[in-house]
Amino acid sequence: MSALPSRPLRRVVITSVSTVAGGLLLLSLKPHSTAGAAPLTTAPAPTATSSGPAGSSGAATAPPTGGGSTSGTRTVDGDAVQTRYGPVQLRVTVTGGRLTAVTAVQLPQSNPRDEEISSFAVPQLTQEVLAAQSARVDTVSGATYTSEGYLRSLQSALDKAGG
Amino acid sequence: MTVTTPPRPAAARHSAAARPGRRSPAAAVLALCWAGAAAVVALWWKDTGPVVGPAGWLIGGGRIAGLLTGYSCALLIGLMARIPALEAGVGSDRVARWHAMAGRYTICLLTAHAVLILWGYAVQAHTPVVGESWTVATTYPDMLKGTVGGLLLLTVGVLSVRAVRRRIGYETWYHLHLLTYLAVFLAFWHQLALGADLRGGGAGRAYWYGLYGSAAAAVLWFRLLVPLRTNLRHGLRVRAVVQEAPGVVSVVIGGRRLPELAARPGQFLRWRFLTPGLWWTSSPYSLSAAPRPDLLRITVKAVGGHSAALARLAPGTRIWAEGPYGALTADRRTRQKVLLLAGGVGVTPLRALFEALPARPGDLTLIYRARSAADLALRGELESIAHARGARLHLAVNSPDGRRPRLSVEGLRAALPDIAQHDVYVCGPPGLLRESYEALRAAGVPAGRIHHESFEL
Fold first, then answer.
1. Which of A61-75, A86-100, B32-46, B360-374 has the weakest average pLDDT?
2. Which of A96, B374, B395, B435 is the most buried (most CB within 10 A)?
């Protein structure tokens, strides 16, 4: 049979300290940047230029190859932006220099609440940015983090599309 | 109560002593508990991506702590479910100590979980921790319940600290402790709603359902249905109350079909006497004699209001009993020779073993220590048993100036020159237990052959 009960406090301290050490070890073994884990943007570097209202920052940039067509349709993936609830990554479609579609590649979905938030915030944001033709719209209340991620990913996609 | 061992045929009784004692499943149970915790951590590892920035570390740590808290809550409940393999195999006292140990650990984990998660969220959102905590508690799904559950668990934890528990008294502590079930129930839902590893139909969710399902089923079965069946079947009632020594009474209990109860010498039951003032409290008392086909007996010393009230029990009083529990039985024995070491009213389970342990004349010794000759409860019947079985009985009382006879290596060796060849059963107050444990080890008795039951947490 076991030895006599002894020093419960010391034992619980030892176990707790071991747990802390183990937790830190596990956390330190995980990668510490999203670079490797976030899906890389697969869109090729833009060769054609687009200008006009779609490229909020690209508008000022001189086209690298002159006389590009503005009527082509291009699809560009934005950055995967980390939010509290998970990564947000968007794919934008630019047709004839106009932002015509925004679809989600990744949205926070680590729990039912995240999905709920995405389900009301994302359609609303998409509607607003399509109307405004830019990422300069207000965040959706109650979905601040998802909105911020959405708009930052959108901006990065527009930057790329704008060249 | 399920029957754990069939009664051995009488012919096999003497050879039984030579058989090695049944191995305690304690090591296997502990290994299983730790393996379960490792599986929880593996679940986190599988589901977790990069850990980025201070918030990532804080939230990561908080999630590990949270998963382990959820796991250990289920374990805490399972350990106290009175599962026969644990009660009679590992020993009720040891399981209770595991539960206490795991409880303290759970409180640490729970605190770490709440602090790290809230801190991590606040860092990530660039908001103050207090406001963030309020948001999480009030707006996150099932977090209002989760917060109440967590606070209840912390309260129960604080009430269980030795100093506090002593102050509030056993009964209050015990009944408040039952709030743990409510706390764990309330906290369960936020784990499913928010636990990143438990959502959806994945392995995590299945594991959690299995874990909590088993714990709930064990409680329902072993703490509610089995006692219900026991009491309906046996209809226990007080038959007589006998004064044994100053402040020590024996309660003789009658009932139907008692052999089916399968209570064994050395075991105890939790007794609830259904009479005004006593019905709301359930106390563990050892059987102080080997069970008879229609009678059980306990012997109790008045140390509190409850045990004192037993002296006034009227014959015919109905009893609700749970058990039998306890591992201080003949199963522990590995040797031919046995020493029983009793202090005060701790003699009760050893009295039953003294009567029932299979032994040849000369193989069985009882050392019984008490404050004074008057306090040597059950002395007469111990002497009769010793005489009838050819067993040795040593009685020791304090000297007139109040000094206790010390249990020394020399004293033990003088009484039993081959003490190292004995199995030793010890039962008594914590002081005696510690003193005799040290003396026995020094006299060459291996720790594995010192059998004791101590409900000191």
1. A61-75
2. B435
Q: Are residues B344 and B370 in contact, defined by beta-carbon separation less than 8 angstroms?
A: yes
Pair (B447, B318) in one structural domain = no
- For residue B245, is it within any domain? yes
Q: pLDDT tens digit string along B16-26? A: 343 445 567 88
Are residues B60 and B206 located together in one domain of the fold? yes
Residues B355, B208 share a domain: no
Residue B78 lies in a domain: yes
> B349 and B261, same structural domain?
no
Share of chain B above pLDDT 90, in %: 60
Looking at the partner chain, which of B61, B105, B196 has a beta carbon nearest the beta carbon of A27?
B61
Among candidate residues B310, B316, B324, the one with its CA nearest the CA of residue B254: B316
Mean pLDDT of A111-127: 78
**For residues B88 and B1, is the Cβ–Cβ distance under 8 A?**
no
Looking up residue B366, the CATH number of its domain turns out to be 3.40.50.80
List the domain range (segments joined by +) for residue B282.
235-325
Find the closest chain A residue to B457 by CA distance: A5
The answer to whether residue B15 scores a pLDDT higher than 70 is: no
**B209 and B70 in contact (C-beta within 8 Å)?**
no
B177 versus B21: the higher-pLDDT residue is B177
CATH classification at residue B291: 2.40.30.10
- Say how many domains are in chain B: 3
Answer yes or no: do B6 and B31 share one domain: no
Q: Are residues B315 and B364 in the same domain?
A: no
Q: Does residue B131 sit in the same domain as residue B197?
A: yes
Asked if A133 reaches chain B (Cβ–Cβ under 8 Å), the answer is no
Give B419→chain A minimum CA distance, Å. 18
Sequence-separated (6 or more) residues with CB below 8 Å from residue A32? B50, B51, B52, B56
CATH number of A34-163: 3.90.1010.20
Tell me the chain A residues in contact with residue B56 when contact means C-beta distances shorter than 8 Å: 32
Structure tokens at A32: 């510490």
* Structural domain spans, chain A: 1-30, 34-163
Q: What is the pTM of this model?
A: 0.77
B348 CB-near residues (< 8 Å, 6+ apart): B285, B286, B287, B288, B298, B299, B378, B427
Domain edge (last residue) among B292, B325, B358: B325
The rounded distance, in Å, linking the Cα atoms of A138 and A96 is: 26
Tell me if chain B has a CB within 8 Å of the CB of A19: yes
Cβ atoms of B310 and B283 within 8 Å: the answer is: no
Residues B397 and B385 in one domain: yes
- Flag whether residue A67 sits within 8 Å of chain B, measured between CB atoms: no
User: With 50 as the cut, is the pLDDT of residue A114 above it?
Assistant: yes
Q: CA B36 → CA B68, B72, B123, distances in Å?
A: 10, 9, 32
pLDDT digits (tens, 9 = 90+) for B242-265: 998 888 999 999 999 999 999 999
